[in-house]
Amino acid sequence: MSKVIQVAIDGPASSGKSTIAKKIAKKLAYVYLDTGAMYRAITLLALDGHIPAEDADALKALAEASEITFEPGENGQRVLVNGQDQSEAIRTDRISKEVSAYSAVSEVRQVLVEKQRAYTQNGQGVVMDGRDIGTVVLPDAEVKIFLTASAEERGRRRFLENQAKGYSEMNLEDLIEDIKRRDLYDSTREDSPLVPADDAVMLDSSDLTLDEVEDSILAEIHRVIA
């Protein structure tokens, strides 16, 4: 595969974006960037520093001063925040409940979008996932996927994932309600709302296996590259 492209995978909470994006990037030997992890990292730092989501100036300064990097790890990728491995800490329900509010802050988004775009400046192929990759971060990406699933299915997946990791902060019903709340928040926020790009391929994974989702996305990538 000689031509390198940019692949943008967007979608709501717990739609499997990060999991499939990692697999696609590995298959293509592309750079993978989990933008959601970056917003979760800022949320973690803000909560630990007792900075409310309403304090835009403090959050902007926090985002500018923060170093968020990615390294290979046992589960595919480690997220380092100011040099410390916070891969597990940013995935807890504590962060999931608050990340939509912090990621909606325009000043935070402006800083992180610039950092995200910087990863694409070296000419490498890139797979990036998030909420606004195809619409804001990489509007010229050659492949744009909008990956979704029902709230009930996404809640079930998150519940099983939490169980596997030993988390028990929320039961299944509460997780589903939390996902619905985040969907509403993310899709109605003023700055970079969660919406499909006009040229995105819509993919509902509610009744698909992970391999079937991967095959569908790879087929679209090969169609574009061919």
Can you describe what's shown?
The structure is a single chain. The protein has 226 residues and is of the alpha/beta class. It has nine helices and eight strands. It has helices spanning 17-28, 35-48, 56-65, 93-103, 106-118, 133-137, 151-165, 172-188, 210-225, and strands at 6-10, 31-34, 68-71, 78-81, 84-85, 126-130, 143-148, 201-204. The strands form two sheets. It has a five-stranded parallel sheet with strand order 2-6-1-7-8. A three-stranded antiparallel sheet has the order 3-4-5, covered by helices on one side. Strand 4 (78-81) and strand 5 (84-85) form a beta hairpin. Helix 3 runs parallel beside helix 5. The N and C termini lie close together (9 Å).
Number of helices: 9
Query: How widely separated are the two ends?
Result: 9 Å
Structural class: alpha/beta
Tell me the major beta sheet.
5 strands, parallel
- Strand order in the sheet with the most strands: 2-6-1-7-8
Catalytic activity: dCMP + ATP = dCDP + ADP; CMP + ATP = CDP + ADP
Domain Cytidylate kinase: 7-222
InterPro entries: Cytidylate_kin, Cytidylate_kinase_dom, P-loop_NTPase
Enzyme class: transferase
